[in-house]
Amino acid sequence: MDVLAVRQAIAFGRKWAIEGNGPLVLEMKTYRYGGHSMSDPGTTYRTREEIQHMRSTSDPIMGYKQRLLDNGIATEEELKIIEKQAKHFIDSELAKAKAEPEPLASDLWNDVYVKGSEVPYLRGRVPEETHHY
Residue 132: enclosing H or E segment and its boundaries? Predict the structure, then answer.
């Protein structure tokens, strides 16, 4: 889970596609720290120690942070300032989003496909939720 490796792979894939070389599959290996849902703590099929080990050795944000520190690109203090600014930005944008009215349920079907490439219909959770384009 290396941020720079992902960036490099995406740049390669973009160039590959733009040059007309056809489709390309990029496999991204990740690790989910939490369970599958609110009712799944994620600890019935793996230990807390495994989760903590993965977080301490493979977390992409912490790995990138350590790279910045190891290479003298940023100091711990500078990174704390950036993290504080990012948290403030996220909190601010979240407040704006929460102030907006809820979107219409019918908007769920918008912008799923590029115009002209739509399938005849999309099925929802149950057949009654089928949306015809």
Answer: strand 131-132
The Cα 90–Cα 92 span in angstroms is: 5
Helical (H) or strand (E) element with 122: strand 121-122
pLDDT digits (tens, 9 = 90+) for 3-51: 999 999 999 999 999 999 999 999 988 888 888 888 887 888 888 899 8
Radius of gyration of the chain from Cα atoms? 21
Q: What share of the chain is helix, strand, coil (3-state, %, to 5)?
A: 55, 5, 45
Which residue intervals of the chain are DSSP H helices? 3-18, 48-58, 60-70, 76-99
pTM: 0.65
